[in-house]
Amino acid sequence: MTAQNPRLSMELFALNQDVAALEASLAGLEGRARLDILITLAWALRQRDCEYALRLVEQAEAMLDHEPIEDTKVQADLARLLLIKGEVNWLFADLTQAEQQAMLAISIFERFADRIGAGDAKWLLASVWLDRGDVHNHAKWLELATADYRLAGDALRVAIANARALHFAAFLDAPGTSARISELFDLKSSQPAAVMAWLASALALVPGLSGDQVTAIRAYSQAHLAARESGQLRQAILNASNGADAFATLGDLDAALEWDEHALALARSTGWPSMVGNTLMQTGNVLRLLGRRDEAKAMLLEAQATMRELTSSKSYTMTLQYLGDLALDAAEPQAALGYFLQVEQRITSLGEQYFLLRCWRGQANALCRLAQPQEASAKVAAAFALASREGSADEQIKALRIYAELYHLYPLPAPDGMASASASLHFLNQALAVASTINGYIVPSELLDEVANAYAVIGNYRLAYTYAQSAAAARDNKRLADASIRAVAMQVRQETERAYASARYHQQLAINEASRASYLQETNTTLETLGLIGREMTANLNKEAVFSTFYRHVRQLLDVTSFSISLLEQDGVTLTGSFCMEEGRALLLSDCSVDDETIFTARCARERQEVVINILPDDDLADSSRVAGSLDTVSLLFAPLLAGERLLGVMSIQSIRSHAYAERECAIFRTLCAYAAIALENAAAYAMVDSAQLQANAALQELGKAREKLADHAEWLAEEVSKATGEITQRERETVYRLSKAAEYRDRETGAHILRMAHYSELIAKGMGLSVADRELLLEAAPMHDIGKVGIADHILLKPRRLDGEEFEVMKQHALYGYEILKESSSKVLQAGAAIARGHHEKFDGSGYPYGLKGQEIPIFSRIVAVADVFDALTSERPYKKAWPLEAAVDYLKANSGSHFDPDCVSTFFEHWDDVLEIRARFQDEH
Question: Which CATH class is domain 16-277?
Fold first, then answer.
C-alpha cells in the first residue's frame, strides 16, 4: 500500500504497517491528495477504530461539499464513505441502517460499473444477513460479492471471499470443506494475512469438529494473528473465542478461560454488541464447566441482554443453549426445557445440524427429569436418527445413554429387537457396539459404570463386577490421557504465546520503521527550510529587519506564543531588551544584568547554553521568568546568540502549551539562533562601515579647515592627514575582514540529492559492518555535509563554470564553516554532522582539504560520505553541468579508489549495486 497511489491501495483489509504509513503521509497534505488519503485511511480503520474512522469520514464529506456532485470520482468517494458508515452500523447491531446504506452504495457503484465497490457493499450485506441468522441470504450475497471481485480481476479479494465461504462451509460439511480447501489454495505457499484470517479458521474447524483440538488451536491462533494484522477485529475476536472453545474441549479449562478473557477484553474495547455478547457467552460456558455457576449465569444473562437486537443470530442461540445446559447442571429442568425450546425455534434457519443435536439431547434430558418419559423418548429418538444420518458416532452414544436412563427410570414399552436382559442393557450394549467402531475411541468410564449397574439390577453380579473393573481401568486410562492432553495443551499454549509475542515484536518494528522514515523525511524538509531561512536572514543588513524576519520564521516552524531578544551591551554586563512580541503584539522588554540569578535570560547568558523550562501548575516562579505580557506561558526556551566565542545576546521563545520544546524543537531553534547571530554580525559590521565613513568625512573636513588656517604648517598637516588616512584605512580593513567572516551563506543542492547520498552512505556503512546505531546516526547526519556552503558568496557558489584557483580556495572553506556552525552542539547528530562537514573533502592519499588527512586518519563517516556525495554529484544534473552516465561515474570511482576514495568504501558500494539503483530510482529530482 502506498500513499502516493491511494486509489490502488483501497484493499478490502489493509495491513497494520500500511495503515501507519497512511497516517504518517496525511500530515501536510492538502486538497485532493489529502482527500484521497482520508478516504483510504477511514476505510482501513473501519474495524480498527470506528470512532476515528467516522471522524475522518466527516472531514472527507466536508471536503467533498466543495466538489462537483456530478463528477464520477466524487460519486464513488461518497459511496465509499457511505459504506464505511454502513459497516460501523453493522458492527453496532443497527442492521436495518447498515442494509440501507449498503444497498444505496451498491446502486451508486453499479451505476459507474465499479465492481470493486459493489463487491465490498455485497460483502457487508452478507455480514448483515448472517447476524440476522439467515444463512441462505448470507451465502447468496457472499457469492455475488465474489462474482464482482472476479469481474474486477481482483485476485486478492476473490481469495478472501473464497476463504470466508470455506469457513462457513466447514460447519456444514467438514470433510467436503477439507477437499475444497486443497482445490482452491496451495497450503505450502504463504497466504496474505487478510486471507489467513478466514482460511486458517476453516483449517481449524475441519479437525476441530472431528476431535483434533490440538491442530485446531494452532490454526485458530494463526487466524487470530492474521486477523489482527489485517485489521479484521471482529474475526480476531471470534478466532480467539473459538480457540478457547477448543481448549475447553481438550480439557484445559484454565487455558480456555485465559483465551476467553482475552477475547472479551478485546470485544469490550470495541463496544460491538455481537462481539461482546459472543465472548460473554463463551466465557460463561467455560465458567459453567469449571463449576462456577453463579458467575457463569451472570455472564450468560449479560450476553443475552447485550444481543437483544440480534435474537436471530447464532451467538444468541448458543447463549440460550448454554443457559439450558447451566439450568440442567443446577437441577432446574423446567427452566432448561424453556431455553432448549427457544433454541429449537431459531436453530433451523442456521442450518447447523450439530447444534440441533445438542438442543434435542438437552430437551430429552430436561423432559426425563420432569417425569415426561414419552416426550423425552421422542426427542432422543429424533436426536439418534439425526446423529445416525450425520455419521456422528459420539452423538449416537450420547443419545443411547439417555435412552438407557429413561428405561431405567420409567416403565416404558420394550424396544424393538431387544435381545438383552433389560431395556437399559439393550441401549447400553448398542452404545458399546457403536464405540467399538470408532478408531482410537476411549470408552467413557461413566458408560461402563452404567453397564455395570444395569447388570447388577438384573442380578448378574459377575458381569457387573467385570464392567466395574473396566470402568476403574477406564478412569485410570482417562487420567493418563488427560495428563497427556494437558501436556499437549500446555505446549500449544506456549507456542501460541510465542507466536503472539513475535507478532507484536514485528508489528512494533514496522511501526518504528515507519516512524523513523517519517522523522527522516521531516528532518530533511526542515533542513531545506532552514537553509532558505538562513539565506533570507543573512541577506538583511538592518538589525530591526533581522528581528522581524526571525520572528516570522520561528512562528512557522515552532509553537511560539511569545518571542524576545536581549542584546549584550559593550560593558559585557547589561542585557538590553531589544525586541519582544506576544501573539503579534509588540511589547516592552526590560533590561537586566547578566549577574541577576532570578532571570533565566541572565542564566542563559552566563552559562552560554540553552535553558529549557517547563512550568508545572504548582510552581512558584517570579513574573520575570516569563515575557512581560498578558499570557501565562508554561514552556520556556532560551538560547545564546554566539559569534564564535563572543556572546551577542539571548533569544527566547515561550508557549502556553506544556512541554512544547523537546530535542527536535531545540535543534531547530539552535540552528535559527546560529543564523540570527550571523545576521546580527553582518548588521553590526555594516553599521561600523557607516560609522567609519562618517568619521572619515568629519576628519577630512577638520583637516580642510586646518589647512586653510595653518598654510605655513603644510608639512605638518600632510603628516596629520597621512596619519588620519592610515587610521581610516585600518578601520576599513577591519570592517572588510568582519564582513568577509560573516558573508552570506548559500546552498543550491536539492532535497533529493541529500536523501540519495544519505541513503547511499547508510548502505555503505551497513556493508562495512557498522552498528545499527552508527548507521542510523550517519543517515541523519550525512545531509549536513555541505551546510558550510551557506557561508560562501553567491558569485562563487552559483558560478556556472569551473572555479579558478582563488575561487576554489574560498570554496574549500565551506568544510570549516560547516564544522564551526555545528561543533558546539550537544546533539550527537549535529556533532557527527560537524565531523562529516569538516572531513568529507579529505582524500585517501592525503591530497584533500582542509587538513590533508590521509587513510585511516580520516574519520570513517567522512570516508563513506565522500564516495556517496561524489557519485550522486556526478550522476545528477545541475544548471552548470549535465549528469554523467552511470558507467562513467562507476569508472571514475573505481579509477580513484585508493587515491581519492577509501577502497573498502568503494568496493562495498559496488557490492550493493542493485540497492544503489533502487535508492537512485526512489529519490528522483523534481523537474
Answer: mainly alpha
